[in-house]
Amino acid sequence: MDAVDARDLTKRYRRRGGAVKVAVDHVSLAAAEGEILGILGPNGAGKTTTVEMVAGVRRPDEGTVRVAGLDPFADRAVVRRVLGVQLQSGYLHGALTVRELARLYRTFYATGRDPDALVELLGLEEQRDVRYERLSGGQQQRVAIVLALVGDPRVVVLDELTTGLDPQARRQVWGVVEELRDRGVTVLLVSHLMEEVERLCDRVTLLDAGRVVAHDTPAGLVAGTGLDQRVRFRTAAPLPPGVLDAVPGVDGVEVRGDQVVVTGGGDLLQGVSTALVRAGVVATETRLERATLDDAFLALTGRPLAAGTTAEKATVR
Amino acid sequence: MTTTDLPLPAPARHGLRPGPRAWAALVVAEGKMVVRDTAGLVVPLGLPLLILVMYGISDVNTVVVPGTGGRTVLDLFVVPVVIAIVVGTVGVVNMPSFLAYYRRSGVLKRLSVTPASPAMVLVAQVVVSAVQTALGVALALLVATTVFGARLPASPGVALGVLALSAAAMYAVGMLVAAVAPTPNASVAIGLVVFFGLGATGGMFGDVSNLPEPVARLGEALPFGASVQALGDAWAGAPVEAAHLVALGATVVVCSLVAARFFRWT
Lengths: 317, 266
Hints:
Chain A is of the alpha/beta class. Helix content of chain A is 30%, strand content 28%. Chain B has one domain.
């Protein structure tokens, strides 16, 4: 049995004027025990609504949720003890300090982790006596993660856990998630950061406009879209024709002035480099580009994952 | 899948609810929230003292009311009013403002995804409000007796009982304010209007015999006026009028039920 099993979750909102918007449309997702499942999608894809239904915060209009085999609404008391939740919208007692909050929330659980150690683990040692309301957004975010973990949950929902964090804090939080993996904790990780998902997640459910568009491993998603690698370089002299044609894995070569783009698969960079050296071509600024989840998302939906990211054209043939 | 199919070890069902440690920790947490909100303490501790001093420097402690064992207007009217102000500001203004803030900011929502229920916060707030009330009443009585020569109630047990019932009534009104207020600001505004409305018709700004008869009758049936009258009787050692106790009891029941019906957690 999966640690998290949600089937056909549907949530509708009635807009002003009576029009009904389907925020989440028959979304199913499952995370095996110990798995880190990424839920990736652009803003407004229904990620938060989906995990709030999994967490038992919002009642689905249709569909079923089981967390550790239990219904979060019918078996609320049991589920609360095994499920740790970090919500985007949750706020805490503003006048309490980081340490006071961690210790307070620890008392809600019969068993759990050492609150002070968790505060340290999330890099909040220096802020432990600072009131929550005086913390920066990123620090408040990390307190939320402390509280999600303080009951030593078997399943954790983390909604945009690194939003507002600087790169260093982000890596620290990623380390904490990897520690959860080592402890065998099942994690539902909501994100719109491709890098985060590629690094942490065993599998990914891609959401767009309230629907599941794909579900696979990060590598599988990228491979499944048929996007391949690209090697770019510049040449001092024009590239002699045919030099790269026999290189294994090469699908196409595009020459634009002194810039060359080779598309293909396999060990493309190695093959191209060897062929260039043999042909006596001097290549500079050689770069290998791999398709990413961003590219996969673009290929699946026709839209970039995050507004502002410069998703490159998928094919350069 | 069926729920009987449990390859994961079934979570134990004992000790599902947070125990005494969690309750104690939450009460302490709410206490810290109240104490650290310094501005919020000014009204329940400062306003009653101000009213007490303003009356105290007049001649109220020299006017003996006949048939009360030498008790003065200060004992029978001013001290009850001051106590009602403490109870009312804590219950009707302060407590709902915390609860509205907790709801608005998402504290209640956050608690709802822990084994603790957000209802525990309500209970903890009531406990802390009771402590705050006790401190405010003790402070007011200390100043009244030592500075202005007020006397303690002729029926202390009755006075304590009436105080407890008054507090319950005011907290119930506060829960109703918290239930209907859409925002923390609205909660403070509604709380203040309700508090001053109850106070004005109940004798906070002077003897209710100066008010038009219907207004005075109404005020007496509302929690502030009923508290003042019942406490006055306890101070005089006179039997407390059943109507006042009924008014307070009815406030507890009606406001609690309506609050429970309309309270929104998110």
